[in-house]
Design a protein that fits this description.
By secondary structure, the chain is of the alpha+beta class. It has three domains: 2-163, 2-Layer Sandwich (Ribosomal Protein S5, domain 2), CATH 3.30.230; 178-285, GHMP kinase, C-terminal domain (Alpha-Beta Plaits, 2-Layer Sandwich), CATH 3.30.70; 295-403, Up-down Bundle (Fumarase C, Chain A, domain 2), CATH 1.20.200.10. The chain has helices spanning 70-82, 106-121, 128-143, 149-156, 190-203, 205-228, 231-248, 253-264, 307-332, 351-358, 367-372, 375-403, and strands spanning 2-13, 24-40, 49-53, 58-61, 90-96, 160-162, 169-170, 178-183, 269-273, 280-285, 292-297, 300-306, 334-335, 362-363. It binds (3R)-3-hydroxy-3-methyl-5-(phosphonooxy)pentanoic acid.
């Protein structure tokens, strides 16, 4: 088996204007990753690929997928790039911890992870430049007129100063700084946002060109600030960039609320990151203020722990609870009405209408299964119980903190 992964990304400054030739700064998110595992199958036709992507509930053979399905596209592009056709039958499993459609480069990371796994599995690992070019082809299919910034930062996995059409310029970051990501929980549709900006630009070219020039000014300001470790100025550049993104029309009430909250909590600057209209915001935290806590094990102080490390140790279980409860809610959202005692009703029932009127999300597929199914109850009980365990763990930590 060959396993490869690729990182997510954030755009620090310059999104949207970058599509119109202005510079932008982007950085990888090495801890958020998509992973692809390729392994030969004992049985199957030569050249066949069985693709499994549990995050999007996909399990299918390559030839069954629509030709523009992104995973199908990247598998075919990689084969073409390597001039490989009749490989042994292959299983490809793809997973990702990057939230989808939230401006964090999830689709690009999946493409790059897949092409890395396949090319390594077939003995011809591709250089970052070629990885970037192949992932760009998938971006073009799904985002219309992408600038190429996402595939560049993900393939090189380095901060980049990016200008469309220019050679990739890695951008070394002199001193560490801390960014906080805030997820609106709303999907950010890149092609829609980019299309909307295009329409606005076509209607008012002069105004939009001037806005993009001002965005470029914030990128120059931010770049210099990062080189000099001047975080106050970087925050200023982020705030100015956000005002311009508002004027461009890609912010949203939810993003503004997160940005305002971050600013009130002391952020030096905050802005949306990526296409906007949902997705994530980034906020620049003041550096040098991070408290260090004593980490305990076996009732003894063991290691120093950063406060953020501790906070995130509670965030992740609660995040899993949220996902689990969402899945349980979706199981409970299947309408059994119309199944009768076991094999249907003697009178006509408009199940679609009932589903919508009662707020269910789908109609059960099989009446025998529907009348017997209690999965939703068990899933709800388990999800609730585990949420309780996680909240109790948080409570215990807080009580110990107060006692110290
Ligand atoms: O895919 P996203 O949400 O990270 O957006 C990419 C950044 C844009 O500038 C909006 C589009 C582009 O291709 O550069």
């Amino acid at each position: 088996m060959t396993i490869a992964s690729a990182c997510g990304k954030i755009i620090l400054l310059g999104e949207h204007a970058v599509v119109y030739g202005r510079p932008a700064l982007a950085a990888p998110l090495p801890d958020l990753r998509a992973t692809a595992a390729a392994s030969d199958l004992a049985e199957g036709e030569p050249g066949s690929v069985c693709i499994e992507a549990p995050d999007i509930e996909l399990a299918a053979w390559l030839h069954e997928l629509s030709p523009d399905q992104p995973l199908a596209v990247i598998v075919r592009l990689t084969r073409q790039a390597l001039a490989i056709e009749k490989h042994p039958p292959l299983a490809l499993r793809v997973q990702s911890s990057i939230p989808v459609a939230s401006g964090l480069g999830s689709g690009t990371a999946v493409s790059v992870a897949v092409l890395r796994a396949l090319s390594a599995h077939w003995g011809h690992p591709l250089a970052p430049e070629r990885q970037s070019a192949l992932a760009f082809e998938v971006e073009k299919l799904h985002h219309g007129t992408p600038s190429g910034i996402d595939n560049t930062v993900v393939a090189y996995e380095q901060p980049v100063y990016f200008v469309r059409g220019d050679a990739t310029q890695p951008f070394p970051i002199g001193a560490p700084f801390t960014l906080v990501l805030g997820d609106t929980g709303l999907r950010s549709n890149t092609s829609m946002a980019v299309g909307m900006v295009l329409q606005a630009w076509q209607a008012e070219k002069e105004r939009f060109e001037a806005l993009f020039d001002r965005v470029a000014g914030t990128v120059a300001l931010g770049r210099k600030a990062i080189e000099q470790g001047d975080w106050a100025t970087l925050g200023e550049a982020m705030d100015k960039n956000q005002q311009l993104l508002q004027e461009i029309g890609v912010s949203s009430d939810e993003l503004e609320t997160l940005i305002e909250t971050a600013k009130q909590a002391g952020a030096l600057g905050a802005k949306l990151s990526g296409a906007g209209m949902g997705g994530n915001m980034i906020a620049l935290a003041e550096t040098g203020m991070e408290p260090i806590l004593p980490g305990y094990t076996h009732l003894q102080q063991a290691q120093p722990v950063r406060a953020a490390h501790w906070v995130l140790s509670h965030f992740w279980p609660l995040h899993r609870d949220l996902v689990r409860l969402g899945r349980a809610a979706s199981s409970a959202g299947s309408l059994p009405l119309g199944s009768g005692a076991l094999a249907g009703c003697p009178f006509p029932v408009d199940r679609q209408w009932l589903m919508e009127a009662l707020g269910f999300s789908q109609v059960s597929e099989n009446s025998l299964d529907a009348v017997a199914d209690r999965d939703w109850a068990v899933e709800m009980a388990f999800s609730g119980a585990l949420l309780g365990v996680h909240l109790s763990r948080l409570g215990e930590d807080l009580v110990k903190c107060l006692a110290l």
